Amino acid sequence: MSELQRAISGIGGFLASRSIDVPDALRPLAGVYATACYRLNDRLWHLLLPAVLGAGSGIAVLSRYVRSQMLEVAHQDYIRTARAKGLPEETVLYKHALRNALLPFITMFGLTLPGLVGGSVIIESIFSWPGLGQVMVNSIVLRDYDMVMELIRPLLAARGAEPLGRVVIGTVKGDLHDIGKNLVASMLEGGGFEVIDLGADVAPEKFVEAVQARNAHMVALSALLTVTMPAMKTTIEALKAAGLRERVKVMVVGAPLTQRYADEIGADGYGENASVAVTLARRLMGVQAA
């Protein structure tokens, strides 16, 4: 977490500690407002800020490139000839120097753009045929994982195979990120597991209840924020306290995690990405790789 993010979190905590109590009748509305604020902040950090930085970097690179080209063009013979003829300085700079300075950039852009467009058309054609490919891509982009699994489940049912195991998956308490968790859940289900998805910001007792109610064989804990990583250890301890740890395998997934951290908190394995998580789940269940 950067210093700016820490400062923002500190300000948020300061304001929250001094806010008035919300009446019971308004608590649902307050929850919706908090979720909307979180989503807005998430979009600012992950979309707007990178876009602004990318645009600023592009403008800076282009400006430096044009400046260097202008300095080189300004010493050419035709520029000196134009000045010797008495042309206005603005005409010399903008009509002759700038035009020739931009010529290499325009040429490069003209050669690159058709390649990008052609590649996009080819990829679009591939994913549009016979139609399901485009639906799958749009579903993933829109985070509509129910639609993704609706396309996969008929293929799984056609095999007539029993589930390899029952997996309870969720993002740990305090973490609202669920894109990676959804991807792991989808790939686990596509890999032959029955998945019970508890969603995001899941308390340890919810994991315990789900394992007891559904007789799960495995628990997959997800986290994206480093500040929520300790909640994984808390969840594992809750499983121990309930007497369930010995009968279930625990797998942890998430960008900030490492195998060392998984070993420290007592997890059975660490999935570096969704594909590795499926392979790990099969190994923990004693299933030979296909």
- CATH fold description of the domain at 164-284: Rossmann fold
Which outline best applies?
A: elongated
Please mark out the parts with pLDDT under 50 across 5 or more consecutive residues, or reply none.
7-34
Radius of gyration: 28 Å
Strand line-up of the largest beta sheet: 2-1-3-4-5
Residues in helix, %: 55-70%
User: How many E-type strands?
Assistant: 5
Overall residue-averaged pLDDT value: 75
Oligomer: single chain
CATH architecture descriptor of the domain at 164-284: 3-Layer(aba) Sandwich
| CA-CA gap between termini | 39 Å
Structural class: alpha/beta
* Number of DSSP helical runs: 11
Looking at this structure, what is the CATH superfamily of the domain at 164-284? Cobalamin-binding domain
Q: How are the secondary structure elements laid out?
A:
Blueprint lengths: L2 H15 L9 H47 L3 H8 L4 H40 L3 H10 L3 H15 L6 E6 L7 H12 L3 E4 L6 H11 L3 E5 L7 H12 L7 E5 L5 H7 L3 E3 L2 H11 L6
Helix pairs in contact: 2-4, 3-4, 4-5, 5-6, 6-7, 7-11, 8-9
Provide a descriptive summary of the structure in words.
The chain contains 11 helices and 5 strands; from the N terminus they run ααααααβαβαβαβαβα. With 290 residues, it is α/β, with parallel strands linked by helices. Among the domains are: 46-106, no CATH class; 164-284, Cobalamin-binding domain (Rossmann fold, 3-Layer(aba) Sandwich), CATH 3.40.50. It has a 5-stranded parallel β-sheet, with helices on both faces.
Q: Notable features of this structure?
A:
290 residues, alpha/beta, Rossmann fold, 8% strand, elongated
